[in-house]
UniProtKB/TrEMBL annotation:
The keyword Iron-sulfur does not apply. CDD domains: PLPDE_III_YBL036c_like. Keywords: Pyridoxal phosphate. Residues 19-214 form the Alanine racemase N-terminal domain. InterPro entries: Ala_racemase_N, PLP-binding_barrel, PyrdxlP_homeostasis. This is Pyridoxal phosphate homeostasis protein. Belongs to the pyridoxal phosphate-binding protein YggS/PROSC family. The modification N6-(pyridoxal phosphate)lysine is found at K31. The keyword Repressor does not apply. Pyridoxal 5'-phosphate (PLP)-binding protein, which is involved in PLP homeostasis.
Length: 217
């Protein structure tokens, strides 16, 4: 689907639900996509992108950032502690802060590098074994722990279970954010981004609906 169609659908849902136009921002998820498709979306003027692997992002984005000024890059996949430095140098936001060890590592490097990407805590709203993210019951304490380390937590992120109504998970994420004074909500993907807008998402992570199905070789 053309990028403009996705943007139109987001605007329409913002309007329908009484939200300010542009208050739900589109993160175009470019992981695994052929470079020419990513460049086509950049040439349409889009500048906000998401990648889920540090290595993959490092291979393409430094050059694209030079060629297309104003690019903003979000890490939306799990972050290993040994890649934190590289991630902090490459990404404008890390949406997957999900454990104390990672928070300590980011806090240490923040002092050393003198800068820090914007930080989102990933919450495992479905309490799924195989999924990353802090458990909902542990979220408040973890957010407090991050703040205690001097980290500013700007947002929360979730990936709902595939077989459950996403709106319930979006609502839970919004509730946790509200009681912790957190403004940004990263939720909603290709299949449910309109529902996420209705639940207050400020970032929508949409991949295949923009770029087409991912082909893993
Ligand atoms: C791949 C991915 C997306 C995009 O998924 P689509 O269904 O292609 O829109 C969103 N969020 C995360 C965390 C992802 O890994």
């Amino acid at each position: 689907m053309p990028l403009s169609d996705i943007l139109d659908r987001i605007r329409a849902e913002e309007e329908r639900t009484g939200r300010a136009p542009g208050s739900a921002r589109l993160v175009a998820v470019s992981k695994v996509q052929p470079l020419e498709r990513v460049i086509a979306v950049l040439e349409e003027g889009h500048r906000l992108f998401g990648e889920n692997k540090v290595q993959e992002a490092a291979a393409k984005w430094p050059e694209l950032k030079e060629r297309f000024p104003g690019v903003e890059l979000h890490l939306i996949g799990p972050l290993q502690t040994n890649k934190v430095r590289q991630a902090m140098e490459l990404f404008d936001a890390i949406e997957t802060l999900d454990r104390p060890k990672l928070a300590r590592s980011i806090a240490r490097l923040k002092d050393e590098l003198g800068h820090c990407p914007r930080l989102f805590v990933q919450v495992n709203t479905g309490e799924e074994e195989q999924k990353a993210g802090i458990m909902p019951a542990d979220a408040d304490a973890f957010i407090a722990e991050c703040r205690g380390l001097g980290l500013e937590i700007e947002g929360l992120m979730c990936i709902p279970p595939a077989d459950e109504e996403p709106s319930l998970h979006f609502a839970l994420l919004r509730k946790i954010a509200g009681r912790n004074g957190i403004a940004e909500l990263s939720m909603g993907m290709s299949g449910d981004f309109e529902k996420a807008v209705a639940q207050g998402a400020t970032y929508l992570r949409v991949g295949s609906a923009i770029f087409g199905e991912r082909v893993y070789s």
